[in-house]
């Protein structure tokens, strides 16, 4: 008999490591985060520096991803863009998750009128297709990155609330929660110490899956002119600028798109791996 | 069944009311005085006052709501601030292009999604499975506007096979936009088909069929595939709303004369009567599609309606 303890956390880590793609995705995400943090050191040029003499040059040794209409280095803009996309993706999901978890807990734990109110409100939010809701919110608040974060958070919220409500309802009736209640644990303690941790595995999985969607939505809104405004080096906004030069300067379309695609792809693969690791039903 | 039908219909009424109140009160949520904002910076007091009365902003919210919804029921959605034409007319011009785009996108996504999902399930654990699922996860990660731009680049600009953008009623113009629109949903459908298919393959009647010597091909297509399709059909219905939302982006890429692009134009110039009407229209569609899907599901699966 070996003495190593098999904690649930270790099992999850082990299962996760078995999925090679998910592990690779995790490494890519860490690298991307480093690129974002050290953008000023890594980027070869100033992302805002214009030079009309260098307008729309194809990729070369000096400019690996070519230059855009204003002669700005596209690679540098993509590197700085990583900051925006990661920040927008993470913050909007985080805000949506915090609010959603709180609402889901309240809804599932207290039931009754509050539950009805919260769930009907989320029904209403579900009645608008995600991006349309975001567009409506931006129409009210005005274009801009911060408002995009607000919009994307709002439409992530109801799903988190539903996930947490579902597991809260199940956990509320579980034996250990009843036991806690019978020894006189306060409501607050039962909610936060006994129930909330149990709901988190579902939340974590959805959280990672949602980051990819949020990055795409935020980039879409910027592409539509509702998010980041020029000259901000945002990937979606860069693609919007490239639209008129298809067939003239294809590199302007290709590279920012690859950046979005790979980032979202790796977040999705990472989320898939996490789900596989955290779901006891899957081997 | 009839009881279930009425119960579900009754359940959507409050949702519809709240959605319409939101779409209506939307103008009220704007910072500042909406009438002044709509009138523009150099409008005089009389114009602003007239606009306010025209929009019903001088009355209380409930009155405003009842008036607006009353008008909506009579087909009067107000006038566009930009073109001065009735919103109803503007919307009816663009309704068909958006719907045909969404329906065509749905057709692609069911076709490809079910195909890739079925391949992954039949070859579960082999390279065909991994390839199909890699394509699927890539499809989910592709931003539609980028896919659209790439498609234009390749098929319209370089190969010249299909038109670049716009819609004048020719089928060839529908190919690229609908394909782009359907790609994400196709990827979602593929994953869903895979899991539905695998669930069915675990059923006892599949083992029974195999045990009594039914050829494997027949087991797959006749016994498994047909049953796996039931949840897939439901999923397809639910994704239709997603397609309607996606049409906003795709229509902008392809300069498609539909509701989605109209909405973006309306946001840009703050054309609130148009936005109100479009929000109402989109969300009502969404709610009714979900209702329809529930009904179909209840028809197929009796367990639901006796719950």
Q: Could you explain the architecture of this structure?
A:
The complex is a heterodimer of chains A (283) and B (307). By secondary structure, chain A is mostly helical. Helices cover 73% and strands 0% of the residues of chain A. Chain A is built from eleven helices and no strands. The model of chain A has no long low-confidence stretch (mean pLDDT 86). With 307 residues, chain B is mainly α. Helices cover 78% and strands 0% of the residues of chain B. Chain B has 13 helices and no strands. In chain B, α1 packs antiparallel against α12, α5 packs antiparallel against α10 and α6 crosses α8. In chain B, 39% of the residues are buried. The mean pLDDT of chain B is 83. Chains A and B meet through α5, α6, α9, α10 and α11 of A and α1, α6, α7, α10 and α11 of B.
Rg of chain B = 24 Å
**Gap from first CA to last CA of chain A:** 24 Å
- Compute the number of helices of chain B: 13
Largest sheet of chain A: none
Order of helices and strands of chain B: HHHHHHHHHHHHH
Global structural class of chain B: mainly alpha
Task: Write down the Rg of chain A.
Answer: 22 Å
Q: What number is the mean pLDDT of chain A?
A: 86
Strand and helix order of chain A: HHHHHHHHHHH
- What is the 3D shape of chain B? flat
The structural class of chain A is mainly alpha
Uncertain regions of chain B: pLDDT < 50 for 5+ in a row? none
Strand content of chain B: under 5%
Average pLDDT rating of chain B: 83
How many strands, which pairing sense, and closed or not: the largest β-sheet of chain B?
none
- Distance N terminus to C terminus of chain B? 11 Å
The greatest interface between two protein chains, and residues involved on each side, is: A-B, 39 and 43 residues
Number of strands of chain B: 0
